[in-house]
Amino acid sequence: MTVNRRYTFHQLWRTAEAAAAGLYLHVLGRRPRMIVIVGEGEDMVIALLAAHRLGLDVMPVDPGADPQVLRRSVPADALLVHEQDKPDWHRGPAVSTARLSELAATSGSSLGRTKRRSRIILLSSGRSGAARAHVTRPIGFGGVVQLTALHRRIGISERDRVLACTPLQHGHGLQLLASCLLTGAKLVYAPSSDASELLDLMLNERITVASGKPSEFERMASLLEESRRPAPPLRRIVCSSEPLEPELVERMNKLWGPVIMNSYGMTETGTVALATPEQVLRHPGTVGKPLPGVEIGIVGSPIWANAEGRIWVRGGNRTVITGDFGRIRQRLIYVDGTEAR
């Protein structure tokens, strides 16, 4: 579900199928091209699945990203799906999410099988060099092992209700969507909601697993502390994309108990390490150990040796020397930032 809409998995796929048929017949003119999704709203899930159904490359992007980077990264003939006014940086074809919703409601058409293979293209954060479009590779056996390990370490099951604060243009947001589609868990997609709205969703939707940035949980913690209202119970909290400070962990533990996990990853490799609640408590600042199928080390040092320096990662079928600096201590990984300390 999203903040304003609810779908069963069957309804979600039927809506995406109808949107795909409408795009193919009335917007694309039966001509395959990349689909670029600009925004964080609920219609973006439908657009993503519709592009996948057509076997087209799809690129979710942050509407607040640098226009020059977007102009350089997005093909001129790509079809842009946008929420508000069409952005000035793209001069190619475009369709609004309102029009996409109309197509999904009225097309009623079915599609034959496609031989094309859809790829997801994400704009990297620039932590491993200049920001650029990153094309996902075929997942392969190693990628399957990595995704399965992440899914198992978090422990999402069909009984869970998962709150996703992370938008689809981030790898972690896509991985949560994939986990819920895989298991049948309920996904509540709310990347643009404020702290009060997120807490209400946790309570009203009986959320069991919540995932987002530490800054988002800090705002929720502050609101709960100021109002002295009880925290909605959660079985698991997964933090990503930002450093998780020990002081925040202490505050969150008082509100939700020892349920916090801390993850590390990047666009090029996906999530590569995840600290368990026990590791977060006993080893402040750690992102835990690499997932199966992943190797992490310090440049210039033997793998798993206690060392500090620039981090390299091998996962997602590629090796990346990151812009992050950190430490390895007793096989636990600590990320200290983007500058050597």
UniProtKB/TrEMBL annotation:
Q: Which InterPro entries match?
A: AMP-dep_synth/lig_dom (IPR000873), ANL_N_sf (IPR042099)
Which SUPFAM superfamilies did the record assign?
Acetyl-CoA synthetase-like
Mind telling me which Pfam families this protein's record contains?
Answer: AMP-binding
For the biological process aspect of GO, one term held by this record is: fatty acid metabolic process
What are the UniProt keywords, alphabetically?
Ligase
Give the GO molecular function terms. medium-chain fatty acid-CoA ligase activity
Please state every residue range assigned to the domain named AMP-dependent synthetase/ligase.
151-316
Q: Which PANTHER family match?
A: ACYL-COA SYNTHETASE, MEDIUM-CHAIN ACYL-COA LIGASE ACSF2, MITOCHONDRIAL
Family the UniProt entry places it in: Belongs to the ATP-dependent AMP-binding enzyme family.
The name on file for this protein is Long-chain fatty acid--CoA ligase
- Protein species of origin: Candidatus Agrococcus pullicola
